[in-house]
Task: structure prediction
Amino acid sequence: MTFRNFPMVPRVVFGCGSFNQLGEIIAPKRVNNNSPFIFLVDDVFQSSPFAERIPLEHRDKIIFINADTEPKTSQVDELRDGIKQEFDELPSGIIGIGGGTLMDLAKAVAIMLANPGSSVDYQGWDLVKNPAVYHVGIPTISGTGAEVSRTTVLTGPEKKLGINSDYTPFDQVVLDPDLCAGVPVNQWFYTGMDCYIHCIESLTGTYLNAFSQSYGEKSLDLCNDVFCNGTLPEEESREKLMMASWHGGMSIAYSQVGVAHAMSYGLSYLLGTRHGVGNCIVFDHLEEFYPEGVKQFKEMVDRHGVEIPGGLCADLNDAEFDTMINVSMGMVPLWENALGKDWKQVITPRKLRNMYEKM
Ligand code: NAD
Ligand code: ZN
Result:
């Protein structure tokens, strides 16, 4: 047996207001005054006072990006080409500020600035040859674990698949819970539940080991504090959810996710359903696989008065169902983690169709 030798984020700063240190953190990484830092920033901050706090010097540049759609390979290639055209030197660093969407874009652009061709060529496992440009992740919403993960999930012309590589993780992460202050409740819940579902899928999976369990249990405790136990002061709640996301990401790094993610990939591929809400839509129907987790999930939905969309699959035709089913059944390690090597005895196309029809 070969054990995976797993890269981790080498530097992290945590604390309310820690964003103010960004300038001094990145300064030593500046190659020269012509080599800019490029800040990829969620456009929700475009005319907010926060944007004024981004520490620009010399030729540094902010690119605001809309996060309504998840990252695409074409978008990554265009960003890379635009940066290369505008500047004659490689950037000193790429800094992603936002949720999973902006953090994944920053990781992918940093890789593609240092590697030839299209990002499509690197979707998969360990295909990246050259180390990425220095890159920093700064989450402004908590749950995906993209701030610690070894992947950047991209939708390409043929597949939705991550660039999984040792060069993908951030060189630096800034965890400032204050940056999450403006997240709307529904989105807070959907992205937060991504973390909760990571924990349930990791902790009940057949791939579980002490490494994953130690992070998964801590993350689940923090999720319980945030979503179940009374009402925490807002600041404490933001701090805890940020650390839950981190630990949840660490947990799945050494295990795998499960049924909700496998099925939500199908929804996302066909309908463009976004990750957080897609996981919630699916998880709501998974009592059979995760009885305790789903019971608690439903309580949390009620408690926070959040709406989980339904009826997505009401008007789909056979070919569309088949597409979703094929994408989902293609996620072999996820099914294997959830149900063991003989998962195909439980999960058949017919079974998946019945489940999707309820969503
Ligand atoms: P997101 O980045 O898509 O953002 C969701 C919404 O929240 C957007 O409308 C955004 O503008 C808004 N938002 C973000 N921060 C805000 C703030 N502080 N105030 C107000 N609004 C704010 O959300 P997400 O759920 O964090 O990320 C989903 C993406 O992450 C998907 O593309 C998914 O594929 C990816 N993902 C990646 C990994 C990984 O390991 N790389 C893991 C899970 C998910
Ligand atoms: Zn997820």
About this structure: The CA atoms of residues 23 and 97 lie 14 Å apart. The pocket of zinc ion (ligand 2) is lined by residues 144, 194, 198, 261, 275, 279 (CB under 6 Å).
